[in-house]
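Predict structure. Chain length: 132.
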Amino acid sequence: MKLLLADVLMLIGERFSGPMNFRLILQPLVATVLAVRAGLKDARENRPPYFSTLISDRSQRRGLLLEGWKSIAKVFVMAVIIDLVYQYLVDGSIRVLEALGIAAILAIVPYVLFRGPVNRLASRSRKDAEEK
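Prediction complete.
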C-alpha cells in the first residue's frame, strides 16, 4: 500500500510539467468548493464534523459515505476520465488503477480534509454571533 501511494504521489509530481497540468489545480479546487458548501450546510443543520463522525460513529458511517460520494462523484469521475486521456496522450497507454489513485488524491482528499473544518469554523462563528 505504501508503495502504491508513493508511486501515485510521484506520478502527480510528474504531471505538473506535462500537458493538461491545469487540472492538478482545478480538480482539488472544485472538490474544496464542494466541501465548503457541504461544511456550511452541516453547520446550518448543527451536524457534527464530517470526517471525525465518519471515523467514530459507525451508525452514521454509511449515510455519510453515500452523502459524500453523491457530492463528489462527478468531480471524481471527471478526474479519472481526464487522467486516462492524459495517459493516452503522453504514454499511448491507459492504466486505470493509476487514474483511480490520482483521482482520489485530487478529488476525495481535499473534500474530506476541508468539509469538517469548515463546519467547525461556521458553527463557531454562528455561536459567537448568537452570544452577541
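Summary: Residues 44 and 70 are 19 Å apart (CA to CA).
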